[in-house]
Amino acid sequence: MSTGRVARPLLEKACLILGSRRFHSTPLFRSGPAPRRSPRAKAASPIPGAVRVKRTYDFEDSLPSIALLNSARKSGALVIEPHEALQFLREYLALDGKSNAGWEQRLCNEHGVTPSTMALLAAILKRCPSKAQKAFAKSVMLAASKLGEKAATFDIISEALRIGSLYDYRAPLERLGTLAKKYNDPQAMTLLGKVLMADRREKEALDWFRRSTRPPTGGLDFDGAGEALVNEGRLLSKLNDKNGAKAAFEKAALELDDPSAYFYLAQLQEPGSSTQQVYLLKAASAGVAEAYHNLGALELEKITPQEKKPTSLDDFGIAREWFEVAAADGFGLSMLNMATLCKSVGQMDDALRWLEKAEGAEGVRNEATVLKKQWEASLA
């Protein structure tokens, strides 16, 4: 999620409190079954058209643990027995890349496995630790998408958006487009909007976000409606339509209780106002790290320059606590702020440790490295 900002005067006040040391705020918008057969019968009679190849290595390392499958079965999510799931996955591995067209569907028919069950098995594999299991998860998820499981298509595109490999998946993208354009699926419309947003086709993205939440093609009764409205608000803000952005954020926050919407809505309130703090607290209670960070910034602002110079981290009160929570949640700017607070009270070892952590955080890595070199040089 994109981050928000605090009032600009806070930076000036922080400089007075902390001397020449930096304080980091956040910008508002940075530029988404057939009848089953027994395993023995299946092994004895290969599916039609399949090319069976003798294994030259052990496939077991690519399979999920029986414990995970048992857990999924007990919860009711997995509709086939764990041993049947393993047999299906073993045969999938034996055929993958070595059989003719349509083998995935024939294998599913042989085992009574639906595309939705394939997607679930892929999701279980994604939770496994090894590279072999994760690679297998990707293959199974792609097959589930190919067989028409829209949840698999959504998973593939969402993951590709996250890691920046979107256009490695042309076929799933085409399926996503069909779901959005032909079938008016609101989740597909929202995800298509995120794809277009990532491609900087912002007006097209805005159109799809609106279609997903407005009649006649959409509404607010689907999982993801809040996200669509938030992205609409972000785009409208970028296009300088502040009133439209506020309306989108308010609908997402006040009608759908979306945590991100509360966060963005907070940025449109009077800086330091009780309303802004309430909205940030609502976002923070749902785990929005940027909200923790901004609450820390608001608390730091209450420390006036007239007060005595801080001599311990306790002197920063609840501001330090909010920054620590955000930093522990992986928020890089809060790591930098914790480093700055530690340095301001002479705790250089702790300050440098926070900078080392920040070097592993997205978006602040370079700044953390530069500061670390400067601070280490000052100690030499």
Topology overview:
Layout: H1 9-18, H2 39-44, H3 66-75, H4 82-95, H5 103-111, H6 115-126, H7 131-146, H8 150-163, H9 170-181, H10 186-198, H11 202-213, H12 225-238, H13 242-255, H14 259-267, H15 274-285, H16 289-301, H17 317-328, H18 332-344, H19 348-358, H20 365-379
Helix pairs in contact: 3-4, 4-5, 6-7, 7-8, 8-9, 8-10, 9-10, 10-11, 10-12, 11-12, 12-13, 13-14, 14-15, 15-16, 16-17, 17-18, 18-19, 19-20
Q: Catalogue the unreliable spans.
A: 1-57
Mass-distribution shape? globular
| Class from secondary-structure proportions | mainly alpha
Q: What is the N-to-C succession of helices and strands? A: HHHHHHHHHHHHHHHHHHHH
Residue share in helix: 55-70%
Largest β-sheet summary = none
What average pLDDT do the residues reach?
86
Question: Radius of gyration, rounded?
Answer: 26 Å
Give the distance, in angstroms, between the N- and C-terminal Cα atoms.
Answer: 39 Å
Task: Describe this protein's structure.
- The chain has helices spanning 9-18, 39-44, 66-75, 82-95, 103-111, 115-126, 131-146, 150-163, 170-181, 186-198, 202-213, 225-238, 242-255, 259-267, 274-285, 289-301, 317-328, 332-344, 348-358, 365-379.
- With 380 residues, the protein is mainly α.
- Among the domains are: 1-31 and 289-380, no CATH class; 36-111 and 115-149.
- Mean pLDDT is 86; it is low at 1-57.
- This is HCP-like protein.
- InterPro entries: TPR-like_helical_dom_sf, TPR_rpt.
